[in-house]
Amino acid sequence: MLLGIVVHAADIQDADGLYDLLKRIKPLYCWLRAVFADSIYNRASALLACFLFGLGLLITRRPAGATGFVVIPRRWVVERSLGWLGRWRRLSKDYEELPEVSEAMVTLAMIRLMLHRLVHTARKQLPAP
């Protein structure tokens, strides 16, 4: 499930925006100890952000010598989550003008997904009449 989101301008690299995300979520999740990321986050700005918040940065890499499609550990979590968000019609295209509205739409989509799972889990656990 989603811990936090920051939507920023397209001219800001994701690794450079990591500090803003960690600044937002670290006070809420003090138990957080590590960040899994792909190789684009292997930059000084991302390493510095993780260091400042006392987090370990674990880079997932493609296995050496691999050809074709390879499932990379932990990266599938992000791809799966983006697939779930793509099913939310409002997020299928970039309709919003303000980044705050985009953040709210992603948050609503993830809340809906969580509620759907909770309802169906509770329904399965009820005893049969």
Number of self-contained structural domains: 1
Backbone shape? globular
Rounded radius of gyration (Å):
17 Å
Structural class: mainly alpha
Total helical segments: 4
End-to-end span in angstroms?
Answer: 33 Å
DSSP strand (E) fraction?
5-15%
Proportion in helices: 40-55%
Low-confidence runs of at least 5 consecutive residues: none
Strand order of the largest sheet: 1-2
Q: What's the helix-strand series?
A: HEHEHH
- Structure summary, number of beta strands: 2
Mean pLDDT over the residues: 86
Secondary-structure blueprint of this entry?
Elements (H helix, E strand, L loop, with lengths): L13 H12 L8 E4 L6 H9 L3 E4 L15 H12 L12 H27 L4
Parallel strand pairs: 1-2
Describe this structure as you would to a colleague.
This protein has 129 residues and is mostly helical. The chain has one domain. 47% of the residues lie in helices and 6% in strands. The chain has helices at residues 14-25, 44-52, 75-86, 99-125, and strands spanning 34-37, 56-59. A two-stranded parallel ribbon has the order 1-2. Helix 1 (14-25) packs parallel to helix 2. The longest helix has 27 residues, at 99-125. The protein is globular. The model has no long low-confidence stretch (mean pLDDT 86).
State the main characteristics:
mainly alpha, 6% strand, single chain, globular, 129 residues, 4 helices, two-stranded parallel ribbon
